Amino acid sequence: MGIFDGLPVPSDKTYLREELARIDESWAVARFDSLPHVVHILTSKDREADILLLREQSDVVEEVVDEVVHAYHGGFNKAIQNYSQILRLFSESTDKIGDLKHDLAEAKKSLGTRNKQLHQLWYRSVTLRHIIALLDQIEGIAKVPSRIEKLIADKQFYAAIQVYLQSSLMLEREGLQTVGALQDVRSELAKLRGALFFKILDDLHAHLYNRGEYSSVASSIYERDDEVPTTTAVAASRMSSQPLSRRTRTLKGDSQFGVRGLTNGSHITASTEEGSSFDGHEEDSVEYDEATADGQTIRNGADSKLLSYQLPPWLSDSTPDEFIEAVRKSDDPLHVKYLQTLVQCLCMLGKVAAAGAIICQKLRPTIHEIIISKIKAHMETKNLSKSASSQGDRTGAAGLHLIKGQSEAYRLSKEKQQNGISNSGTHLAVSPVSPLMAPGGKAQAAAKDLLDSILDTIVKIFENHVVVGELLELRASQHDINTPKSLPTDMNWNTDSDASQATGGYTISFPLTVLQSECQQLICEILRATPEAASADAAAQTAKLAKKAPKKDKRQVTDAPEDGLTFTFRFTDATVSISNQVGADLIRQGWGKRASNSSQEGYGSAAVLPEQGIYLAASIYRPILQFTDKITSMLPKKHSQLVNDGLLTFTENFVKDHLLPTMFVDYRKGVQQAISSAAAFRPRAHSTTYTPTVEKGRPILQGLLAIDLLAKEVLGWAQAMPKFSTDLVKYVQTFLERTFERCRTSYMEAVLEKLSYRLIGRHDIERLMRLDAASACLPSQLGHSVSHSEAVGSEVELIELFLSLPSIKQDNLIRDDNKLILLASLSDSLEYVADSIESLGQAVPRAASQAEDNSRNQAASPRNLASFADEYRKLATDCLKVLRVEMQLETVFHLQEMTNREYLEDEDAEEPDDFVISLTSQITRRDEGMAPFISGEKRNYVFGGICGIAARASIKALADMRSINLFGVQQICRNTIALEQAMAAIPYVDGDSVQQNLDRVRTYYELLNMPFEALLAFIAEHDQLFTPTEYANLLKVNVPGRDTPPDAQIRLSEILSH
Question: Exocyst complex component Sec8 N-terminal domain: which residues (predicted)?
Fold first, then answer.
């Protein structure tokens, strides 16, 4: 961009811009040097051309200058005219100022002659204005009582107190003290102070217990109608300061409390309860409906920030000051702001001590009344729900009768047999508690629901007390809150300088103590226990209280809760030192009446609970734990030690010192009853087939079924009370150990001194049975998987061991079928209990905090229960092993009659031998007896070893036979067919294996019908079908009609050696 681009050249002379662009910018520098240009012209070859060029450029510049002058000519003229006008105005102003000075000098001279008269007139006007203002003030003060009454009626308490304090200050002014017409106003203001105090106290009392206008209704107006929010009461101290504007910092008064109280308060939550506003003149029970609302929860996020800084409606008529500014800027919920306002009003009135004393006095009766109303509401809800499903309406007593009637119907229905087995009947016979009182029963659920509802209400009430308590403690730490600076000193309302006395004995510790004490009384009523039962040192604690609170101090109970005493006694109502005049005021206002023994009466929980008793401690433990956690999180740090000896400690001591010992004794009796009764180990089945589930009729022994139910019940208590799960698991271990010993005794009674029991105890036989493929179905794993060849080899070796035993006598066998059926049922029952124990061991709860030794024991609890399961399974396996070996020995016992006899029959065999008939009938009878008690694969295990050993015994018996003929061979074949038919009747036995084993026997004995040469030819072709010994036995036995050469054994050996 060139230096001449901004010149005002008209559009018709655009060529001037082109000409200017050709001019070197060196001609326009600030310090122009003409020497180079002159030298250039002088040294140029064409001087005339250069000079002509310079003249043309000069003409262009002059023409441009003309255009610029023409363009700015009007502006230059107008500027000159304006300047001339300014000079003219300045000249005229100078002349007028001179005239004004002259006039002022003349006026001064004229006024100076009457200075005294003017001064008198000014003084008279000032006096008249002061009188008029004083009269206006007197007229305004006369209207103050009616204005205050109107503000009280509109619940504008803060504005009413502002008007009251302002009027009181005005009445103390020097000019108004002697006005007699204002004496009536002073008297009315004194009365209004008391009325205002009690109105504020009424409203504070109502909002403390969530029954005020702003407790829930005002806090929930921004909630969605169909939304029921769930809030958790949490309180945390916020030690920050609220920045104030310069205007609010210049205000005077007692409003510093508003700033610090709002910024240091620990009020975050807004769980409140809806109900009717409290009337301090009545003592009747009030309906108490619960609701939850968060004052900071608005319809949407955009409105939340807007509404949080709006002025609350109860401060709409108040004069702006520091407190109102702090309330407007605070983010606390609506009900917290209202509590702060009421406390500020009490501080401004200077009646905090009286308010604290009255709140302390009414605390216990009100809490007692609220708990009763909650129980009544709970009962009415239940009655309505019951009446909706039944015909007709019922009163409260009829509702309770209905609940108990349903309890009996529940018991009868559970006692009905399910496929012939009454599990619940067994439960009722041995359990120390009814089904209603059992873990998860209706009584436990009802107690937990009731206590959850009541404790949730208590938590929300305590949240309000924390708000008020912190505000009062903060105010007490600043200055004397019972003597306002704006009022004359009232000695009746002054107390000691101690913070607790400054608040009338009301501190955070006092409501916490009373609330937990009332909850303790309710729990004792539910448990049917006395408060002294909570701890073994109740007397010592009471003595500790008496020692800390001398009789001469009437405020002993007020200060006692700060020491954090254990709840082993019932606290009395708080008393404070109040003057006679104040006491008369309290009685006149309805606050002096005591609750008519309401705190000494019960709560009526029996009307809503199906049953009461010590076992309900399990259902109240978790609500108490949650209640303590909420209270702990709500308390300021300096009061956190107050919960150390509170309701949770009471409950834990009660469980540890009373419930657990009682439970151990009761369940020990139940276990003893279950395992010692005559029917405990008596197999009972109402079906001919096995059912795998108890619900459908699995015939578990009644004793073991009862023990399983008791173990589940005790572990149910452990899940309800995780902290005491270690002790309860130890109880279960003790019960299981005693039950195992009883099962072991029954097992030994059946197998003692029997050959099968001795055999399974031998290490070589135990090893071979572990390798047997049939052992895979046993409850306990006896070893790792083995190959087929190893399994077959172990089975053959095991059979040879059994056949090598000395002659088996009848006394060596279990001849009583009932004992065998007992072993079968015991095995299945033990396996069922073992599976149940294992599953229960995995579900054993772990306590959050335990002592070091308890933690180690508890960590090992599932492993200990698993070890019990292993022991039960091992005993169940021993029962099955005894049954298998017993059936094999029975087979050997019957088949040993084949030895040392002659099978020289004279006719075809139509029936098997008697010993075979006896054996097959015994197999059929025992299978039918065991069928309902063991599964199919277990039946296969018990009876599956018969054919193998029968085949081996039949073949081996040939070596001891003296002679056998053709009919004898047919007889033996007939015996095998009978045995095969008996085994085929057992559904789960492997039919192919049975046929293969018995076909081998028939093949073997049919070889006796062959001539010698044909036999040798068969042996040559099937040398692996039988052993050399078995082939040799075929030649040794005497077969009539068969010619056997003398060298038969030698020729057989030659054939087998190839």
Answer: 16-151
Give the SS3 label for residue 322: helix
Q: Are 803 and 949 in contact (CB under 8 A)?
A: yes
Cα gap 703→707, rounded to integer Å: 6
**Among all chains, which residue has been given the structure tokens 């030192």?**
577
pTM above 0.70, yes or no: no
Exposure class string for 792-819: b at 16+ Cβ within 10 A, else e: eebbeebbeebbeeeebeeebbbeeeeb
Give the pair of three-digit tokens for residue 900: 């040392």
As a whole number of angstroms, the distance between CA 556 and CA 576 comes to 9
Is 302 a residue whose pLDDT tops 50? no
Give the position of tokens 């082109």: 18
659's CB contacts (< 8 A; 6+ apart) are 614, 615, 617, 618
DSSP sequence for 530-573: -GGGG-TTHHHHHHHHHHHS-TT-TTHHHHGGGG---S-SPPPP
Q: C-alpha 633: how far from its chain's center? A: 15
Task: Dig out the tokens for 757 from the structure.
Answer: 């029991």
User: What confidence category does residue 842 fall into, taking pLDDT thresholds of 50, 70 and 90?
Assistant: confident
Residue 492 buriedness (CB in 10 A; 0-12 / 13-18 / 19+): middle
* Mean pLDDT calculated for residue range 716-739: 88
Q: Which residue has the tokens 């002073």?
A: 186
pLDDT band at 531 (very low <50, low <70, confident <90, very high): low
Q: Is 786 helix (H, G, I), strand (E, B) or coil?
A: coil
**Phi/psi of residue 275, nearest 5 degrees:** -175, 180
Q: Which two tokens stand for residue 536?
A: 């073994």
Sign of CA dihedral 687, 690, 693, 694: positive
- Among the listed residues 988, 979, 949, 936, the one whose alpha carbon sits nearest the alpha carbon of residue 795: 949
pLDDT of 106-125, one tens digit each?
Answer: 888 777 767 777 778 888 88
Q: What's the CA gap between 599 and 570, in Å, rounded?
A: 10
Count how many Cα atoms sit within 13 Å of the Cα of residue 140 in the half-sphere of its side chain: 14
With beta carbons less than 8 A apart as the criterion, state whether 210 and 220 touch: no
Lowest mean pLDDT among 419-423, 483-487, 614-618, 941-945: 419-423
Higher pLDDT, 640 or 333: 333
Query: Which tokens is 975 given?
Result: 């015996």
The DSSP result for 93-150, as a single string, is HHHHHHHHHHHHHHHHHHHGGGHHHHHHHHHHHHHHHHHHHHHHHHHHHHTHHHHHHH
Average pLDDT on 946-969 reads 90
Q: Is 932 helix (H, G, I), strand (E, B) or coil?
A: coil
Nearest CA to 330 among 260, 226, 433?
A: 260
Contact 25, 2 (CB under 8 A): yes
- Nearest of 481, 542, 479 to residue 506 by alpha carbon: 481
**Cβ–Cβ under 8 Å, residues 909 and 967:** yes
Find tokens 């436990």 and name the residue: 444
